[in-house]
C-alpha cells in the first residue's frame, strides 16, 4: 500500500558480505510485498563482466523448508575517458635548403635536426583502466627518401613499448 524505507545492515557471515534488511514483523500469512533495492558496490575493477548476488528470503518464525532463494547476475560496465596529448620539442623546425645528410655518419647532427615528440595518455576517469594499447604510426619515409629518422622510443610509468623495425637503422 504505502512506501517505507527499509533498515538494512551490512555484516559478514561465513566469510561472505551479507546485507540484512528487516521487512516487517509480524507479517500476516499471505502478505505480498515488493522491494526495490539500490546497491552501491565499489572495487569492481577486477570482477570481470558481471557480478552475481544471491538473494534469499528468510523467516525468523517457524522453520520453513522453502526459504526462497534466487541468483541475480548484473553486468559490470567500466566507464573511463582516455585523452592523448602530444608535443614536439622544438615546436617548429626549419632545415636549410643547402643541407644534405652525410651517408654513413654516426653523428646525430649529420642526420638532421633533433625533434623530440612526447605523447601523454591520461585517464580522465571515472573508472580505472588497464590493458590499454596505444598504436602510434609515424611517417618515416617520403617516397624513397627519409622524412624522419626514428632514433629511439621510451616510456615512463610502467608501460611497455614494442619497437618498430625501422628504429635507428644506421645505429647512430
From TrEMBL:
Keywords, comma-separated and alphabetical: Glycoprotein, Integrin, Membrane
PANTHER family: INTEGRIN ALPHA (PTHR23220), INTEGRIN ALPHA-IIB (PTHR23220:SF73)
Name the UniProt record assigns to this protein: ITA2B protein
Transport in keyword set: no
Residue span(s) of domain Integrin alpha third immunoglobulin-like: 83-171
Protein topology in the membrane: Single-pass type I membrane protein
Stretches assigned to the Integrin alpha second immunoglobulin-like domain: 3-76
GO molecular function: integrin binding
Keyword Glycoprotein: yes
Cellular component aspect of the GO annotation: external side of plasma membrane; integrin complex
Compartments, as annotated in UniProt: Membrane
Amino acid at each position: 500500500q504505502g512506501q517505507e524505507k527499509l533498515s538494512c545492515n551490512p555484516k559478514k557471515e561465513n566469510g561472505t558480505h551479507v546485507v540484512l534488511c528487516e521487512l516487517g514483523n509480524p507479517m500476516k500469512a499471505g502478505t505480498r510485498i515488493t522491494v526495490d533495492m539500490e546497491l552501491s558496490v565499489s572495487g569492481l575493477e577486477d570482477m570481470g563482466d558481471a557480478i552475481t548476488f544471491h538473494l534469499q528470503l528468510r523467516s525468523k518464525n517457524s522453520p520453513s523448508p522453502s526459504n526462497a532463494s534466487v541468483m541475480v547476475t548484473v553486468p559490470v560496465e567500466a566507464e573511463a575517458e582516455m585523452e592523448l596529448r602530444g608535443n614536439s620539442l622544438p615546436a617548429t623546425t626549419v632545415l636549410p635548403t643547402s643541407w644534405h645528410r652525410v651517408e654513413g655518419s654516426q653523428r646525430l647532427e649529420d642526420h638532421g635536426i633533433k625533434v623530440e615528440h612526447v605523447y601523454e595518455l591520461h585517464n580522465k576517469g571515472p573508472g580505472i583502466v588497464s590493458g590499454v594499447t596505444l598504436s602510434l604510426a609515424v611517417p618515416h619515409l617520403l617516397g624513397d627518401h627519409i622524412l624522419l629518422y626514428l632514433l629511439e622510443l621510451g616510456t615512463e610509468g610502467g608501460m611497455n613499448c614494442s619497437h618498430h623495425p625501422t628504429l635507428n637503422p644506421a645505429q647512430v
